[in-house]
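Design job #97: recover the sequence.
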């Protein structure tokens, strides 16, 4: 019959426009994100479901859903970052929260490389937002003495991610939007640990002014090791004692003394790598972000391992495979899907809550609610008792728009 969208049998079986059942498409898409290739995902689907499909069909499903997620996240980022409207209240939510962090949080941003067809290796910008838990120091000393003995044990958990082939300004929009999803504007104790790149500091300052920024401890140590190897030689007995002395100073907040030592070495030698030549200025410009003695007493994390892990988990494991790489469009779609998968939000994104759907017909809404409540496939976030929120945000995250929002 002309104009009919679905064949009668498809309609009777509640199949999608592409003739897939909702559950089958969901399983195939998840496998397409998890497996190392679409062919392996197709094989896994066939083993689990008993229905043969091709890797190309899995690719179309996975990338199609990823494109829809990329479009949705871009629209949400624009909505989150638009200028405040007349009559808009600070407590009014622009984005729906998912697993908001109630007590202490950390945000880390970094880059990872992937091969884009006809463009070469390009940087993927990644942001990781985590809940932070602090526990008392271990009662017993560790088998090997460590600087951390006696410090509170700081653990990061409940991670969420956003990743894309974005420039720094677009990353800023998505970093801010993800912060709203996790409720960072109501979090009483946020922090941001990063490896020291200026673009990361800039967008974090813009999005979260006043939030303590911390230089990743291993990254700072890497600079000192590079200096020692260049000045004293990699195999000499002087290297380790010298580095340990500077690390002890950093650990106890004596950054100025480290800068003085580096200045005396006259590191501006053309035959040494840029990492070595720039070391004095690197520590000088980051003194405020290297107050490790203070950060430790406040139980702030001082390592950005979560975002380094995200680079491997979200990007490299699935997208950095042998071959020609990904087109920009398909790569962006996969990054959007992988971000939701590894944030633990795949089911939530696949089945949006009824409250987020724009349905005006009351009978249709009742049918949908009944269908969702009776479906074993539907994902639901367990309810949990959260501390009472203040009437206004604790952190007034900046809202900005336009190309002049950055220097």
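Job complete. Output follows.
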């Amino acid at each position: 019959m002309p104009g009919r969208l679905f064949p009668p049998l498809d309609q009777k079986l509640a199949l999608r426009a592409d003739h897939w059942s909702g559950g089958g498409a969901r399983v195939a898409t998840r496998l397409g994100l998890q497996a190392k290739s679409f062919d392996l995902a197709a094989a896994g689907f066939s083993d689990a479901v008993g229905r043969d499909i091709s890797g190309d069909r899995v690719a179309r499903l996975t990338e199609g859903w990823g494109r829809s997620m990329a479009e949705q996240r871009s629209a949400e980022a624009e909505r989150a970052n638009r200028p405040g409207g007349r009559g808009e209240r600070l407590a009014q939510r622009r984005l729906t929260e998912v697993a908001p962090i109630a007590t202490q949080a950390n945000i880390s941003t970094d880059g990872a490389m992937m091969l884009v067809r006809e463009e070469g290796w390009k940087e993927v910008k990644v942001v990781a937002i985590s809940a932070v838990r602090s526990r008392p120091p271990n009662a017993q000393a560790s088998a090997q003495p460590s600087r951390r003995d006696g410090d509170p044990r700081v653990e990061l958990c409940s991670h969420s991610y956003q990743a894309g082939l974005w420039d720094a300004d677009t990353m800023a929009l998505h970093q801010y939007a993800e912060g709203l999803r996790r409720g960072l504007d109501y979090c009483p104790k946020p922090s941001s640990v990063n490896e020291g790149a200026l673009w990361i500091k800039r967008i974090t300052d813009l999005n979260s002014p006043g939030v303590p920024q911390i230089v990743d401890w291993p990254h700072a140590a890497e600079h000192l090791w590079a200096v020692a190897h260049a000045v004293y030689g990699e195999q000499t007995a002087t290297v380790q004692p010298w580095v340990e002395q500077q690390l002890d100073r950093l650990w106890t907040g004596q950054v100025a003394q480290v800068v003085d030592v580096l200045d005396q070495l006259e590191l501006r030698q053309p035959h040494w790598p840029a990492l070595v030549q720039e070391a004095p200025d690197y520590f000088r410009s980051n003194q405020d972000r290297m107050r490790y003695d203070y950060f430790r007493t406040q139980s702030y994390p001082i390592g950005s391992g979560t975002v380094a892990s995200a680079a491997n988990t979200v990007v490299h494991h699935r997208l950095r495979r042998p071959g020609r790489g990904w087109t920009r469009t398909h790569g962006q779609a996969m990054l959007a899907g992988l971000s939701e998968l590894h944030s633990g939000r795949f089911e939530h994104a696949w089945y949006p809550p009824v409250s987020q759907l724009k349905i005006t017909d009351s009978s249709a809404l009742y049918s949908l609610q009944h269908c969702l409540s009776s479906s074993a496939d539907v994902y639901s976030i367990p309810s949990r008792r959260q501390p009472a929120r203040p009437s206004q945000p604790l952190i007034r995250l900046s809202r900005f728009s336009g190309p002049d929002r950055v220097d």
